[in-house]
Amino acid sequence: MIKLKVGAVFISDVHYSKNYRKKAFEDFLAEMEKKLPPQIIFFGDIFELLFGKVDYTISQNIQIISKINNLAKKIEIIYLEGNHDFNLKNIFQNILIIPNHRQPVKAVFDDEVFLLAHGDIYISKSFAIYRRLIQSTFILTIFNIFDKLIGNLIIKKLDLLQKKKAKCFKAFQFEKVAKNRIDIFLNNYNNFNYIVEGHFHQNYKITYKNINYLNLPAFGCNKKYYILENSLKKL
Question: Does pTM top 0.70 for this prediction?
Answer without folding.
Answer: yes
